[in-house]
Amino acid sequence: HQSKLDFFCKLGYGKQDICKVLDSLGQEALEDDVLKELIRMGSKSQAPESQAEPSQLKLVARGSCSSTSGSKWLGEDDSDSSNHFRAIVIDGSNVAMSHGNREVFSCWGIQLAVDWFRERGHTYIKVIVPLWRKEPPRQDNPIADQHILEELEKQSILVYTPSRKVKGKRVVCYDDRYIVKVAYEKDGVIVSNDHYRDLQNENPEWKWFIEQRLLMYSFVSNRFMPPDDPLGRHGPTLSNFLSKKPVFPEPKWQPCPYGKKCTYGNKCKFYHPERLRQAQLSVADELRAKIKVPLSMWKEEEQCNHLP
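Above: the chain sequence. Below: its structure as tokens.
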């Protein structure tokens, strides 16, 4: 048994497999039979491994917000999953025209917006612009600082929506749908002053997402400025709005104007610092405690009164 074990170990087989084969075939089995059984066991062990490799690639619906290692769309990298900031999708046309005062497609405005989010620590930033903005500027569509688009494209930040010409006419895809779709799938934030009302009516899930994840902005002296309260006065702050895990401050309680003279007890909605170490009892319970009458006696009396 030991000689056979040493012989097949030199051939590269494991001791456990050799012992299993010898136990199943017997100690008197020929070396050829043992070798055939070991080869058959090796082919069986390789088969499930080869079947497990393609199973790692799973198809995930684009409507889901979950991030998988197999999804690589629009330059997504693995480092984005560890980042606690939300993904940023910028409406390039809206930002550029807003910076150009609705007269010029100002690419410098896009650069200002990208730099603002970079300084905050965002790693996933995408700017979506129609492909025809790559063409030379014309009098009816002036473009300023067009070289910025090329630099952002090299950095894998700018993405062009497809378009083509059919019989001299340009066929343009709807870039707003690209913007909302990418932001929805990445569970990120849309940077635009557009309300996308047509897309809200198209999909009820997009309607909620646009209402809750649309970040508006303003340009003040070449300075990109989003509001400190993106969802209104009573909504989250800008830092919580752009964070995957918002941090809310502790509530500040307003002190009671009556102080120790308050008679509301535990029903008082204001803050009582003198009651931190005391149980907040009602006025009746406080009076009973002062008289040193246990509450159980009051309950027994009430039960006796209800008895016939």
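The chain is about 40% helix and 10% strand.
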